Amino acid sequence: MTDSNDKPIALITGGARGIGYASAQALKADGHRPVLADICGDGVASAAERLGAVGIRCDMGDPLEIRSLFDRIESEFGPVTTLVNNAGIALPGTFLEYGLDEFRRVLDVNLIGAFVALQRAARTMVQQGIRGSIINMSSVNAQVAIPAIPAYCASKGGVMQITKAAALALAPHDIRVNAVGPGSIDTAMMASVNADPAAMRTAMSRTPLKRAGTAREVGDVVAFLASDKASYITGETIYVDGGRLVLNYTC
What pTM value is reported for the model? Predict the structure, then answer.
């Protein structure tokens, strides 16, 4: 049996629950050693214990904490070979009253935090000659908008573009950068929709497969992009959305 210390390290931000935790499960099944990072200290500790992984508290809206996170992982465990930039927040509100503090906080976590982590992971990969994989969590809202979450839509559009820019910059080093764009996924972020039959009907009217996706269905795509099976894929966003983005009408 291979010792866990010999396995490649996969860092999953926002890893305490939902898509992050499901991604960690899928990566572990594929032979990675998951390290979970999350702003919820108790939650990430509990998730790591269940998974048999490492859990570290980190606010992905704080660049200093992000850099310290990588310093600690590299010092205690080794270099990150797969980064899953999953941490994200939405903070919905009324468009005309949407506050700049809320807007900045969403961008700090979803876009700036993702960039800081991506850049920090890539620096070590380049320095050590690691053929790494970086997977950013985008959204269908990078392409289609919801007026109640303007900052979230802006941040995910930014994630889509920084994925492309990073893929071009890192291709000479054989480091692949891709994104995953979930649609309606049955996680805590969709809880309010699940609790409202009318809202659920609306969501399903624009989802050709007529059901919400599961976190594990997204996690499996993350694991695919981290694997050698995706060795010729970079700069892409794969949408896990039940067909939503190709639908040109609602019924």
Answer: 0.94
